[in-house]
Hints:
By secondary structure, the protein is an alpha/beta fold. It folds into 2 domains: 2-119, no CATH class; 133-281, Rossmann fold (3-Layer(aba) Sandwich). The protein is 37% helix and 14% strand. The chain has 11 helices and 12 strands. A 6-stranded parallel sheet has the order 7-6-5-8-9-12. Helix 10 links the parallel strand 8 (234-236) and strand 9 (257-259). 33% of the residues are buried.
Amino acid sequence: MVLIRGGLGNQMFQVACGLVMAQRYGVVVRHVDFSTDARVGREWGLSVFGVARDVVGPVSWLALRYAVMAGRRLQRTLGWQRPFGMWLEPLDGSVAQWPERAPWLTDGYWQKAEFYLPHQEALRQRFRVELGGRARQIDALRAQGRPLVAMHARRGDYVSDPAAAMHLVCDVGYYRRGWERLQQRLDQPQLLVFSDDPDWAREHLSFAPDTQFAQAEPGQPAWVDMMCMSRCDHFIISNSSYSWWAAFLANSPGKQVVAPDHWLVGQPTAPLGVCPPDWQLI
Length: 282
């Protein structure tokens, strides 16, 4: 079983880990909903992808929670790599190699590009969604025939929540450098900006006279902007699993992705292994 935690992007990493385990070990994977086991509760965001939520009873839920807590303590104090047959992502960010045998439970965020690059097409199919009328803006921009660049500005809890201080907030200078780099490499690119703080984005990220901003409907599910982004050609992402997935799932010829060279405070992006080697870190 795979414990599913965090926001949509993190949940997708955990499903991706389960997909690779299913193929690697020939097992059936259960996705157990642990999205409420956090200081800030999250919602299950995977239904749109047809991922079934395995809801366990309160006693079993607590047993799993305490098993993970005990396993992490043993991992931290004794260096036990596979406590109780579980596969727990190292909290220090080091690379966790695939176990020889299928673990009965995994817990972590598993944001390692090397895990998923060989399975990119399978993951595109796993997270495939028909946008229908929600793709009108994207379709209209693509019809112009210009390279379409998606820029994602993640702010939200990165700005408002003191407990999220470990996350860097990409500044205007980063986005400007990313846009200038792609302008040099692409022929008349069209900029389309996505953000959870659209007012801030309109004020600070209008780098071109014809800059466009993603048009969100009231109460729009989180997956819509991500899937719209994935229909673009090139990307300037934030240090967020949300725009990471949009860029990773895109299948445009000659795709170029710009990502920040620091993913967390004091942690350069490259050693974390979160980005594929052909993404440009600036």
